[in-house]
Amino acid sequence: MPENQQPRIGVYICHCGGNISGAVQCESVAKALKGLPNVTITRTDESMCSDAGQSLIEKDIQELGINRVVVGACAPMLHEQTFRGAVTRAGLNPFLYHHVGLREQDSWVHGHDKTAATDKALRLMSAGVAKARLLQPLDPIRLGAEKHALVIGGGVAGLRAALDIARQGLRVTLIEKSPFLGGRMAQLETVFPTEEEARALLHDLIQKVTAHPNVTIFMGAEVMGVSGYVGNFTIQVKQHSRGVSDDNAEALMSACTQEVPDPFNYGLTKRKVIYRPYEGCYSSTPAVDWDHYDGRPFDVNGWPIELKDEPKSFELNVGAVVVATGFDPYTPPQGEYGFGELPQVVTLPQLIRHLALSKDGKSLQWNGRAVRDVALIHCVGSRQVDGVHQPQEDGQVNNYCSRVCCTASLHMTADLHKRYPELNIYDLHQDIRTYGRGHEEYYRHALEDGVRFLRYNGEEVPEVSPAPQGDSHPVLVKVKDMLTYGEEIEIPVDLVVLAVGFMPRDLHGLDKMLKISRGNDRFLLEVHPKLRPVETAVKGVILAGSAQGPMNIQESLSAASAAAAKVASLLGRGKVELPPFVAAVDVEKCNGTGACVEACVYEGAIALQTFNENGEEVKRAVITPANCVGCGACVAVCPNNAVNVQGWTLAQYEAMVEAIGMDLPAMTEVTA
Amino acid sequence: MSQSQQPKILILGTLSGGYAGADSTGQSHLDYPPNTYILPVMSPVMFPPEFYLRAFEHGMDGIIVMYSGTDSPYKVEADGTAKLINRAYQLMKERGMDIRRLRLAAICTVCVKPFLKEVNQMNDLLEGIGFVKDEIAAHASAIVTQEAAHG
Ligand SMILES: Cc1cc2nc3c(=O)[nH]c(=O)nc-3n(C[C@H](O)[C@H](O)[C@H](O)COP(=O)(O)OP(=O)(O)OC[C@H]3O[C@@H](n4cnc5c(N)ncnc54)[C@H](O)[C@@H]3O)c2cc1C
Ligand code: SF4
After folding, report:
1. Would you state the pLDDT for residue A671?
2. Which structural domain, as residue segments, surrounds residue B127?
3. What is the ipTM, given to two decimal places?
4. Which of A204, A377, A559, A648 has its Cα between 20 and 30 A from that of A90?
5. What's the predicted TM-score (pTM) here?
6. Is residue A212 located within the same domain as residue A300?
């Protein structure tokens, strides 16, 4: 095996069609590196990523016995895989390759000082060579995988993900916490930008999912525990009883007298504790609201019938988990813009439900009165400013934009204008962020419809107060309007609508069970927003939809399809292959202190095991690669440096740092 | 001026944070001092405090750890790295080193301005306080003088 012989390093520096060579004297760098120990050949090329450039490497491996390769080129995220491929084609282990970024981190930022850019390239390349000397062949981690995925959440994202996975020939189990499918989309009427009926679209999707033979659905179910790793997760599930069956549902529903505020209508109406959220819901069998049912028996034809939740617990073995747990609309605290204090202040989701429940009439009715003037306030619970807004429970304000609410608000103004042309609508915004295809149309229509736009500054939000007695309107909105250079404007209105944003959902420990992180905004966090947008740092746990951040339906669906594609590519072959960048223990150096085990927070990643060495019982750390994320928390605490992350060892870093600090003899010549 | 006469700044940038932030800065073609050497890391929680001391000994005059902070995909990164850096500060103090030479900064993949701010601040600092080797030598000679005085 050439890889086990003395390192024979091939070094390649890319001109990148002048992008690098415009600032870095590539030939001089190549010449200086030639003198380094173990460097067999150095070359430069106009474009290393071209077929010709890659062939150079392949040829050198085959003809010169090169067994370590260093390429200095554009950012590793762009072409690291390309060159690993070239190295593999030539018969070398792909991890005997190291990539140095010379474009984004050198030539593009130091073009004004070519000498300094060249010196920097030389030091970075020299560090690459130092690392290459210590590279070892590594094997990807290969694990058998269940061809079965779990989708958590039966909103539009979870449903789409389940259908796409099922269509790839994999088994899917979908778990929905509530007794009904559909999530927040079921609470919408027509949706932007297509003006289709939300529930018609949803039902079409639900029909396809429920009809698919690869899909099993558990409603009223929750995840109680997670163990294992990608390809082999064990999931503990608890499913609550539905409480009624098709046979007795109608009788029980008519006998039921206990009523609670209806969350489907955001508390605007009441419903029984045996309920269907809306006509045509799935499942059509009603369910008991166990959180609110007071336990009193129902009188059915003179027979007292007491209902009991008898939850079932069971286990699932799945290869991957899609988290599609969605969002909650922001609920303003009591008093924010008069919410909870003035009956004329509602949220946008509430108004959507109110309109859905209202009969068509000449005027919009609220609280028994005709509404003549309505003010819509944007960014409620979003784009909050420290010191201006009341922080959330964790002490932070929601400084993110909820993205959907601008178009949702203008969609609402269009609907209001269509239904009640006489209504005066005031739109109080910071910015209008109608960013998607077809969304800006709503803004244009609103202008044409005579909606009056006022722009406030996020640090001086509008004030909502009861109007003085005897006023024509019950509420007064005061706003400092930036469109009229800060003029203080008072608007008497009958109704104030708060365009509330998206809140990350409380997952009651599910994120902890899955060991996935949240971002600063508290939504679930992907590994990288551009490069790995639906993966989490836990292999095999994938995100879909608005659990990850504010998304409209179209974006939730795209994310769900991306998640499904990721699951299919992970599990499709029945085995998973993962990068080998996980911890590895050098048993020669390990003396079983256990510090590594204490430092690791990933269950089952590292453990002490007892071995017999020359008749003596000794403890040694053992890694389970599938559970290790490669963070290296164990590396820092090992007194003997007996544990390292493969491909990123401390020795490699020290060699790189030493190389950066060292002045090569040829360096003065190169940079003089 | 040749870079060998400039203080050197080592940047340990996480793939999901600082390293990608530096790439974003490059994509914007925004200049910053060239005496900066960025090494990609999975997570800086792997570096023991002694690693930083050895890096200073190898001629790094300033080190910026650009991690992903609380946005890290790794659960231990935020707290764990801060603890390790605090221990490194202790060791630096014992050696008479200015602890401002080592900085922990949360940099995201698109944090171009914060990236530039961190690099420029460290560069300005090093222009003021100079090479680490001089600081270590001054401390060593102070100890020798002290011992001689007491001896
Ligand atoms: C006022 C308003 C108006 C909107 N109007 C539009 C519009 O016109 N057009 C448009 O494109 N978008 C619109 N949207 C956005 C749209 O609602 C979302 O894009 C969509 O609902 C996101 O779907 P989801 O599946 O990601 O999340 P959700 O709809 O929240 O579904 C998540 C599901 O997961 C379940 N769940 C949660 N936790 C668990 C758990 N631990 N275990 C099991 N299940 C769990 C929930 O019960 C829920 O069923 C609007 C949003 C708002 C707030
Ligand atoms: S989408 Fe519009 S209303 Fe919603 S937070 Fe962003 S700017 Fe504010």
Report:
1. 60
2. 7-150
3. 0.95
4. A648
5. 0.74
6. no
